Amino acid sequence: MLTTRPFEETEERQALRATIEQVLARTLPPDRALETDRQGRFEHDVWLALGDVGALGLGASEAVGGSGGTPGDAVAVVEEVARVLPSLAVDYVICGMAMRMLAHPSAGSAAADLPAIAAGERLVAFGLSEPGAGTDLLGLRTSARQEGDDWVLNGQKLWISLAQEAEILYVLARTDPVADDRRARGLSVLAVPVDQPGVIVRRVGMAGMRAAISCEITLDGARASGEALVGERGRGLRLLSETLDVERVMSAGISLGIGRGALDLHVRYAREREAFGAPIGALQAVQHPAADSVTDLSAARALTAVAVRAIEAGSADAAALSAMAKMASAEATARIVDRGMRAMGAMGLAEETPMQMYFRDARLQLFSPISNEMVRNVLGESLGLPRSY
Ligand SMILES: Cc1cc2nc3c(=O)[nH]c(=O)nc-3n(C[C@H](O)[C@H](O)[C@H](O)COP(=O)(O)OP(=O)(O)OC[C@H]3O[C@@H](n4cnc5c(N)ncnc54)[C@H](O)[C@@H]3O)c2cc1C
After folding, report:
1. Domain covering 11-123, topology
2. Comparing C-alpha atoms, which of 51, 10, 4 is closest to residue 27?
3. Pocket-testing residue among 88, 129, 254, ligand 1, by greatest number of atoms within 8 A of Cβ
4. For a FRET experiment, which of 68, 101, 174, 315 has its CA 20 to 30 Å from that of 147?
5. Contact 358, 283 (CB under 8 A)
């Protein structure tokens, strides 16, 4: 029978998925996942359990304190997490970014934190976006200057996942002034301790992705030691962009997880709910959308698999394919959750089923970590059309 699961995976990959499924079934059963979402909580025990099975250390080799693995492994894990609680999958992507950044040969002394992050014992956040710098990230205004041996940071960050729980905030800040046409230069990543008077964290209430713990951060003379620089000074954007393709296929993985969860629910409900003396799934009005959804999901899955293979092979097409996978999966999932909501009627809106959570959480996928419009801009330009942004 046709299922919504991935096709043709290796035995190792299937075993990895089964491990994550078991951990989540034990620590985050459906009722707890819904309650966690409703309350917008971060569940430390679930995180530690993921750390115990090596899921958080994927992306960094065992030699540096991670658990190895391939980008394809990380995408499989994030899909399984997203199926249960999409906003926890956002936190998982943040952890993967930290693994890849800290495992970079240029990371410096910040890499000492890697084993504790991989174990789930230390939480970190990434402060890139600002009130005036989202898609236009290079418009960021946060600055860092050296004062004696220390760095002093001033500025504001917005929508920063996990900041309220994190010990360390990786801040992208301008350390060196540059001309307007070279804005990508002169930015550095600094590891800033969150627990200090110069870092003020405010939780922002969100209608979706609630367990991602979105925060606003004010850096008001925040201090970091001279060792806090991650990678080379002035090359922070370059360091982060080396992990970008994996971040995009992981974002595609979140969309696949949401889409799969929503489609499974659509089909189950259509089998069980009766109207006019028969299951509503016998009506083409309910059945055909499910068929469209499984086709959307499979196409997105196939493109994501191709992008993962390109990344793993170091192909020159990896950047374009991972951006396409991110966009196609997000758009597919937006359609899948909409069809699922229609099929479930009032029950789709009920807080006791995850459909409403999938519906709300799918929105993030359209604009983050890169907006689908910006993906289209870049793909259009890659086709030889004039730059449109
Ligand atoms: C739940 C959640 C978690 C997040 N976690 C983090 C995090 O941990 N760290 C972090 O740094 N950030 C985080 N973000 C921020 C996220 O990366 C930004 O929301 C994203 O980059 C988009 O920026 P924006 O929301 O400011 O949208 P804007 O940049 O204001 O864009 C608004 C709209 O304008 C469109 N647009 C803008 N410019 C163009 C253009 N040139 N061409 C065509 N269309 C354009 C966009 O596509 C979009 O539709 C998070 C956001 C959310 C909601």
Report:
1. Butyryl-Coa Dehydrogenase, subunit A; domain 1 (1.10.540)
2. 51
3. 129
4. 101
5. no
Q: What is the number of other CB atoms lying within 10 angstroms of the CB of residue 24?
A: 22
377 within ligand 1 shell (Cβ under 6 A): yes
> What is residue 357's predicted lDDT score, i.e. its pLDDT?
98
| Packing angle of the helix pair 86-102, 244-272 (nearest 10 deg) | 160
Decide: 211 and 85 in contact? Cβ < 8 Å. yes
What count of other Cβ atoms lies within 10 Å of the Cβ of residue 196?
12
Instruction: Compute the distance between CA of residue 80 and CA of residue 34 in angstroms, rounded to an integer.
Output: 16
Number of helices (H) and strands (E) in the chain: give both, helices first: 13, 10
pTM, two decimals, is 0.98
Structure tokens belonging to residue 1: 């029978």
- CATH 2.40.110.10 correct for 125-234: yes
At 175 the pLDDT is 97
Query: What does the pLDDT look like over 291-319, one tens digit per residue?
Result: 999 999 999 999 999 999 999 999 999 99
The yes/no answer on whether domain 240-382 falls in CATH 1.20.140.10 is: yes
**How confident is the model at residue 180, as a pLDDT?**
85
Three-state DSSP at 153 gives strand
* CA proximity to 123, closest of 160, 155, 73, 86: 160
| C-alpha count within 13 angstroms, C-beta hemisphere, residue 74 | 34
Cβ(70) to ligand 1 under 6 A?
no
Amino acid at 52: D
Q: Where are the domains of the chain?
A: 11-123, 125-234, 240-382
Tokens of 286: 């309910």
CB 259 within 8 A of CB 267: no
Angle at 93 between CA 376 and CA 43, to 5 degrees: 140
Regions in the chain scoring below 50 on pLDDT: none
Rounded Cα–Cα distance for residues 288 and 296 (Å): 12
Determine which residue's CA is closest to atom 30 belonging to ligand 1: 134
Q: Is residue 128 in contact with ligand 1, taking CB distance under 6 Å?
A: yes
pLDDT on residue 27: 98
CA–CA gap between residue 126 and residue 166 (Å, rounded): 10
